[in-house]
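Go through this one:
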Amino acid sequence: MAVRIAIDAMGGDLAPDALVQGALQAAKANSGVEIILVGQTDKLPAAAELPQNVTIEAAASVMAMDESVENLRKKRDSSIWVATKMVKDGRADAIISAGSTGAQMAAALLLLGRIPGITRPGICTVFPTLQGGSVLLDIGANLELEPEQYLQFAVLGLVAAEVLLGRQNPTVGLLNNGTEEHKGPDKVVAAHQLLKNSRLNFIGNVEARDIMSGACDVIVTDGFTGNAVLKTSEGIAKTLLGLLKKELTAGLTRKIGAALVMPGLKGLKDMMDYRKVGGAPLLGVNGISVVCHGSSDAAAIASAVGQALNLYNSDFTGRLREQTAQYFTAE
């Protein structure tokens, strides 16, 4: 049976065109997937124009990027609500959206519910490092965390590192402004003690400068800090690659040298390109919900479909439930 993935075709800066093109690319590359484009039918291709494994589900309205999440309950005909409800009803196995992160998280909480023991969902990403990547969470879902939530995210991150990075007994670090246990805000200090006393493979505090060296497999922080780290790294990578290109093409001799190192530079660019990852799974909800960058293009959406397939085939949600059940008492 094909894996069914619902795509919020109206979400994102480049919707619906980029979402449709990305869906078509993914459908062509993965014969064992069925993609459902959810959105306003007058803005989507006619069914006759689509391949057999791409269908359309009508949704009358759209949650705007800057729209209050409170409006979601009133807009149950919105593309993000309809797509998420398809997962709840068993009509889809995963949902992908590049729209409002707040609306996507709210829809997942209201329709899919939380995994027992998890009080707030978080968003994780694979952060490029010298050791092949680390899982970083939260990257924007929660501006602040209580000490217990740092521990919850560490447990969620453990499974993410196993599935997304293939790590066994992943190491966990707490992002802080120093390695000493007493450093940081009171809640972070308290979180350090909870992590230290847990059964997790906790290595202690990790400073931001050590993230890209691959100091640990899972890095836990609040959403404000995590998002700032992610956006800063994206900016630095873009700037460095731009400077390298400028310097390597300044003169004939350098251009000849540039031709020799170009394969390596391309590999570096690909490693830093969010489009290759596609999206970030929303952790802690009872279903697969992949959050994509608001400016995702067709390539990013196609990559997100591949990620959703990996999450489904690895029983990601089931493994999250199993792991959290070992650490927390169900509510």
